[in-house]
Amino acid sequence: MIIYRAKDYQDMSRKAANIISAQVIMKPNCTLGLATGSTPVGTYQQLIEWYKKGDLDFSQVSSINLDEYKGLSPENDQSYRYFMNTNLFNHINIDKTRTFVPNGLEADSQKACNDYNHIITASGGIDLQLLGLGHNGHIGFNEPGEAFERETHCVDLTESTIEANKRFFESEEDVPRQAYTMGIKNIMQARKILVVVSGADKAEILEKVLKGPITPAVPASILQLHNDVTIVADEAALGRI
Ligand code: F6R
Questions:
Q1: 163 is catalytic
Q2: How many angstroms does the Cα of residue 75 sit away from the middle of ligand 1?
Q3: 85 part of a folded domain
Q4: pLDDT for the residue numbered 34
Q5: Domain region containing 118
Q6: How many domains is the chain partitioned into structurally?
Q7: Burial 71-89 (b: 16+ CB within 10 A, else e)
């Protein structure tokens, strides 16, 4: 495992974007595993900037996102498809037909998850998986207690997640109750993993992830067993390391 200590959020974003750029340059037809959330936004902005300068070409790249709310359409501004389009895909020359996010409109969970596992396999596997880290150690929507062997599955969102998300919706009833997420097994099968972490509020969980026991109680602790993980974290997040 390699740990890069960044000065601040901007430095973290530039370092992470450098690693993704290296992947795209070394293998122009690579498959990137991508994440939503606030942490990767600066990384995506940096990639857009370098693309606009002419330094990066995404025309042969494919992407596979970690997760999506069940029931939300791609046009819903809270869907992860919408997030990816507005924060990255609309601004680079990636072929959108090769960008994959679980199908939130597929009501049949088994079908949605089987289809997604098939997409991951058919892509030849993920070359570089980008991850953010939840405050409880979750990755994707794999919350504490989730079995490490699971592939893409449907999760019931916890009351605290619904509560935290309701500010983004008109009413609490509009907040999705379920989501489709890649499982830990899919994530661990990626050839390389890049984790971005920022802020003092992540210091305690990052210490547990890196130094604590490997346990489903801290889903990201499994990353200790992957043979090619790079952590890019700012000083605040690395405050206990
Ligand atoms: C995003 C995802 C989540 C986030 C995590 C951290 O697709 O699956 O696991 O990476 O919740 O979120 P932020 O970056 O907002 O702290």
A1: no
A2: 20
A3: yes
A4: 98
A5: 2-234
A6: 1
A7: bbeeebeebbbbbbbebbb
3-class DSSP assignment, residue 135 = coil
For residues 61-81, give the mean pLDDT. 97
Tell me the average pLDDT of the chain: 97
135: buried, middle or exposed (CB in 10 Å: 19+, 13-18, 0-12)? Answer: exposed
222 belongs to a structural domain: yes
**What CATH number corresponds to the domain at position 176?**
3.40.50.1360
| pTM of this structure | 0.97
In-domain check, residue 241: no
Q: Phi-psi category of 231—alpha, beta or left, where left has phi over 0 and alpha has psi -120 to 50?
A: beta
As a whole number of Å, the CA-based R_g of the chain is 17
Structure token digits, residue 139: 């990755």
Are 231 and 197 a contacting pair, CB within 8 Å?
A: yes
Q: How far apart are CA 9 and CA 198, in angstroms?
A: 6
68 lines ligand 1 (CB under 6 A): no
Q: Is residue 240 part of a domain?
A: no
Tell me the angle at which helices 41-52 and 9-26 cross, rounded to the nearest 10 degrees: 50
Check pocket membership of 35 for ligand 1, CB cut-off 6 A: yes
Active site residue 85: no
In SS3 terms, 38-55 reads as: CCCHHHHHHHHHHHHCCC
> Of these residues, 65, 67, 103, 151, which one is catalytic?
67
Mean pLDDT calculated for residue range 6-10: 98
Per residue in 47-68, pLDDT (tens digit) is 999 999 999 999 999 999 999 9
